[in-house]
Design brief:
Length: 153
């Protein structure tokens, strides 16, 4: 049984059209080792400053406070964020490129996403929020080298 030409064309369009609107997942910002390393080093410093600001927050790790669980998450994740950002910066500084560091980026991004959620449930002071804003801005600057979605508006 032959499928009519008009039906074949309609099926082809129905199969191809949804993919035409998707950005190419392989499209990343052109790799710039020096730029990525510089941003990562700034990110490591900003993550350290954020962790220090979190540790100064009153009641972050006190059991019985209304935000103890979220506060504990912020404290722990801020430490992990600092450690992972330092590792990424160190590896980039030693010359490791995109392929060697992409899993480090993914882990760092996951921690940052979790921190964002925890921070929304915690009452953080202005200095801590300012420190987080610096981390978030540097993550945004580094993202196009690792995540094609960061390039889409």
């Amino acid at each position: 049984m032959a499928i009519p030409r008009s039906l074949r064309c309609a099926l082809l369009v129905a199969l191809v059209l949804p993919f035409a609107a998707l950005p190419a997942l392989a499209d990343l910002a052109a790799w710039d080792q020096a730029r990525a390393t510089g941003i990562a080093k700034q990110l490591a410093d900003a993550s350290d400053a954020f962790e220090q600001a979190v540790r100064k927050e009153p009641g972050m790790d006190q059991v019985g406070s209304g935000t103890a669980e979220a506060g504990f998450g912020v404290v722990q994740r801020s430490r992990v964020l600092k450690e992972q950002s330092q590792t990424l910066a160190g590896h980039l500084e030693k010359g490791k490129g995109h392929d060697d560091t992409k899993n480090e980026w993914r882990g760092l991004k996951e921690v940052a996403d979790d921190l964002t959620e925890d921070a929304q449930r915690s009452e953080l002071s202005e200095p801590t929020l300012d420190a987080w804003a610096k981390v978030a801005d540097l993550m945004r600057q580094l993202a196009p080298y690792y995540d094609a979605k960061a390039l889409t508006p």
